[in-house]
Amino acid sequence: MSSDLGTIGWLLPELWLIVAGTAIVVCGAFCPARRLWSAVSLVVLAVAGGLLCWWEAARWLEPQPALLSGPLVNDPMAFLWRHLALLAGALFVLLAACHTDERFQPEIQGLLVLVTAGTMLAARANELVLAFLALELVSVPTYALLFLGGRSRANAEATAKYFYLSILASAVFLFGLGYLYGAAGTTWIYLPEGHSLQQAIPGGGKLALVGLSLVLVGLGFKVAAVPFHFYAPDVYQGTSYTNTALLSVAPKLAGLAVLVRLLVVGFQAAPAVVWPVLVVLAAVTMTLGNVCALWQRNLRRLMAYSSIAHSGFLLMGVAASAAGLAREPFGGVAAVSFYLFAYSLATIGLFAAFAAVKLGDTAVDGLEHLAGYSRRHPWHAAAIAVFLLSLAGVPPLAGFWAKLGVFLSALSGFIAGESAVAARWLLGLAVVGAVNAAIGAAYYLRVVAVLYFGTPSGSHPPAQMHVAWPLQAAVVFCAVLVVGLGIHQRPLSTWSQRAEQSLSMQSAVDVPAKRAEPHRVSWKEPSSLTLPRSR
What we know:
globular
């Protein structure tokens, strides 16, 4: 392993966020100014991004071997997903800047910074204890953020429900990690030399299967996969739009990062155990989420089921990689990486846009409240339509290429002529996914139709746009990126493919290294054919 000093150097962005987030919460007790702490939080996240680029960008601009430093893995996947965490964190800060109670601004902003740090740690955890601590660094601040989201009875109920169920999921996840440790005798997920889950799990027998089952239960709650999704509709409906955006993105990103590290790398030696479970979970999750969303009239509840459905599409890419059939340039992890960017930008932008729509002094809730909104605020309605169409997978927006990527990752084994059972299962999953994409488009397009063709009922005042520059900045930024990634997705798809290849090298290479030097895993430059590109 590299020296402790080297490990601390690799941890600089996360350490900075943890220290700065704590300082914001403490210092805010003496100066609870809304604009000050929002600006400070944005500066803190910008400095973390600068540290990340300064320490690692030169390494990953050109193909380099992956590096293990202590319990951390530094590879293109960690580099890419940590940038997504920072980007999402900055957008959360903009949404939270419009919180109605100025007294809570320091606590909210500091906790959002801590959530960002936890998400970044989860993206690079190469050790079970660190993975658990990273997930808890996302979960624990989220409890407080939900509590601070409002004083209504519905918000209190949503907070209590999420708190108790999340605590249960964390306990189950930790219990599963204990079984994995008992089966493998180590907490390391991957080491080029030495004892790690990758080498030890195949001999773990039933103990390893029990541990894996419990780990999937805990992570299933984080990503809102069926049957661990049941909390999402009630919690989303009871809390604010800012917290709904947070719940839709941060736990999903952190949970998927740990899931990919454990299943694609740690359990790669036993794919026959992993991929059937993921295929079933993906199919059931996307189907239930999309079907239940069809008859929802509450916007937050509709988006809760939409988030569940997107978890199913993301699990499709993970299943393709776990089965070992995803072929370049349509790797499962590459597709998941691209999908997370497109999904996160569209989801956060949509919730920011909804938060800016007001019925008097209250936030818009029902679908009927948006009737005819485009005639009063055409540009704002157009941004909402862009986000909805991207989530539906309509070309040429980013969501279309994201969905196409996960479909091709599932079909890559079939396209390559594989005769394995996994290829047929993944083909069936792709068919289920195509049907679900059509179902999803129905309720997204219904919202667009209400925006442009609906008629206000007259029983309530017409919805108006709340002019708040942080919300408008978040909406414009997300809309530009969603359209831009749809038109020119090559840079992101190239980075996503690098992430895929670095993981495939970790799961396939077992090369001894000198103890005095960091462990390195070689990988090659990704093919110029990444995700299919628009012309």
